[in-house]
Amino acid sequence: MATSPASSSSYPALTYSDALTLASRGHALAAVDARLLLQHVTGATIAQIVSYPGRQLGPIDRMRFESLVARRAAGEPIAYLLGEREFYSRPFVVTPAVLIPRPETEGLVDAALARLPVDCMAGLVDLGTGSGCVGITLALERPQSRVLAIDASVDAIGVARRNATALQCANIDFVIGDWLQGIDGHRLAMIVGNPPYISADDAHLGQGDLRFEPRAALTPGDDALSAVREIILQAPAALAAGGWLILEHGHEQGPIVRQLLAGSGFTDVFSDRDLAGHERITGGRLPD
User: Fold this and answer.
1) Can you give the pLDDT at residue 9?
2) What are the sequence ranges of the domains in the chain?
3) Is the dihedral of CA 16, 20, 21, 27 positive or negative?
4) Domain covering 96-285 assigned CATH 2.40.160.40 in the classification
């Protein structure tokens, strides 16, 4: 006689309250992570979890919850476990093929929007688009523009396309490519990018969420700024007169990036600080 893979007697149900206790005391998970995983497995809201602590998870939900808790306890990023991260108040699908969107990168969008008219109809490029969070956000915030999102990773482009479809973003195109190669002469109004900028020997690559994120999106090799240098070198051929190049970089790299931009003929060079007060976004304008 056929039997089910897990019966209630061999794998008893667990209440919401017990599940949160198991995660926090048994695996030392932060309370917020435990609640997010419980929401993800059950579909319950925070209000429901708080209001009905005695509600039970079935055997399958319990197995899923315990598996996710164990993976989180081993360090796997919560965003990958949930498959989603909010960016600029919109939900973005994320997988281990792409970087996890971070608040610092919202500063890149802010800097770009501050320099793009609301009725902008020009062409924009998002380099190293990853999940597409920057390019899609710019396209949605400037719906009359046309955005080209570029990434060298086929898998990343697949994730970005999913996000564009889910967010009903129609004014964006995706290309698999190596930075700005092949788009000379487009005369773009703006190029933005979050290129890899961590040195390959940086100890941070072996810590926290970075251990699980795509290495190629984090480090270009021994020279932390090699990707930034290449983009700055290529950008003038693709920008229109007066066009902007704006890049995210490491918190100590602002002075060097400003020098590189000025050395390539960019004017109105600026750096913006993140919420921690570090220079994180630097850009410049091609002369008219």
Assistant:
1) 46
2) 14-74, 96-285
3) positive
4) no
